[in-house]
Amino acid sequence: MNKIKTKRGLEKRPVKITKYISLPKFIVSKLENSILNNPPTFNFNNSLAFFFLHLVAIRRFIDPNCDEYFGGFVSLDSKLLEHYSYNYSKYFRYFTDNGILHKRIYSKDKNRANSYSFIYAIDSECNEFVKVDINNLQKLKNFELIERYTGKDEKCTHLVKWFYEGLEIDSQQAILEAQKEPNFLKRQSYLMGIEKLKNKEYWFTRKPYSDNRLHTPLTNLSKKLRPFLSFKGEKLVNLDIRSSQPYFLAVLVERLYSTIATLMFENVKNHLYSSGFREEYSKIKNWILNEDFYTEISKILFEGRKISLTRNEWIGRGKSREKKTVIYENERELTKKLILTLFYIDTNSYLYKHDSDLKIFDEKFPYFSAFLKELKKNNYKYLSKLMQNEEANCILDIVTKRLSQLYPRMPLFTIHDSIMTTEYWAERTNLKKLIQSMMLEENRVKPQINS
């Protein structure tokens, strides 16, 4: 099947689907009753209707913030929906007219796209799920039916294959843990994630033009539920890079220093050569590689002052942003959020210029802050993409591929900056030290690994 080009020049491939998808039972019942009592007046494809409802359900699982902060509403890109069917608007109108979905209207003032949420009657309705056959979607030109994913498109066959060879979740215990979540909508997302893993409904995406990370059902699974994962009955252990984004920023700086003689950007070179930058970077680098970075930098930023852990912040991205109250557990968590914001934010934005906490970083680390601004000068997203691509290349294309070559029988899973395997293989290979040595060889700096 041919690829489809969008106006932005990106190629959209046919959507790969498996025969079945899981949906909350009450949603399936609502649609079936609506079709029986109020038949659609347009050319209606049942499988496509279930697929559209699944987009709402799965987006809520993929982005848990939409439950906690946006009342369960998820925004759906009209261009993407149009790719699936030119008649998508008729389906969504039918869903809202028949009490299946709520719709929140597009707003220019709030910079918000059309968004949708399920209409719930009672809490218990979402505790049961139904497997729906969407096999006849393959008759539509933009869908391709597959038995299972290979990971070939994502260049991660060495990782994707293990999902089908023994990954399991203790669904009963995971459900008990999920039901402890007080937020109703968030709890439903947890239950959806458990159901998908139990039924082996997997998906895999990797976008080289974006963050280049491998996104899977595991990357979106709540940390609270990861202890219930296993491989062929054996418990999985997780090894992750401590302060991973600052670490990959250090990797980026070291890479720039190694190529400084041929570096084309004079302004970047000037920053790297300056004694002020070298002094500040040396201190930051030491915290990243040898200390608890966020704790150490918190001491500098707040200097022992009592800081309010309750903040009014913009939550979400793009058109889905809303201002909400956020409560942090401790100063370290607040500092982590501030540092990551510093990496991702547009330094020309109103938010940056009027955030007193970010100004403190500018004051305490003026040379390092100027360096970050230089990297983001032409495009503020450039720095975050550089770091995420460093991470993806290191974890997906270097470390895990080498591990799979050395130990082809060792199951491997990734959650962005972390690597998972069984307790047996982690101990047999002394995996923590092996990962550190591989990353030192590749990146010139050795990370701290949490296990």
3D structure, described in words:
This protein is α+β, with helices and mostly antiparallel strands and about 450 residues long. It folds into three domains: about 1-145, no CATH class; about 150-230, no CATH class; about 235-450, no CATH class. About 45% of the residues lie in helices and about 15% in strands. It is built from 19 helices and 17 strands. The strands form six sheets. Strands 10, 11, 12, 15, 16 and 17 form a six-stranded antiparallel β-sheet that branches. Strands 5-7-6 form a three-stranded antiparallel β-sheet. The chain has a two-stranded antiparallel sheet with strand order 1-2. A hairpin with a 6-residue loop joins β13 (about 310-315) and β14 (about 320-325). α11 (about 275-290) crosses α12 (about 295-300). It is globular, with a radius of gyration of 24 Å. This is DNA-directed RNA polymerase. It comes from Chryseobacterium candidae.
How many domains, as an integer? 3
What general form does the structure show?
Answer: globular
Strand content: 5-15%
Cα-atom Rg, whole angstroms?
Answer: 24 Å
Note the gap between the termini: 44 Å
Given as residue ranges, the uncertain stretches (5+ residues, pLDDT < 50) are: 1-10
- Number of helices, counting only DSSP H or I runs of 4 residues or more: 19
Structural class: alpha+beta
The strand count comes to 17
Biggest sheet layout: 6 strands, antiparallel
* Average pLDDT figure: 88
Helical residue percent? Answer: 40-55%
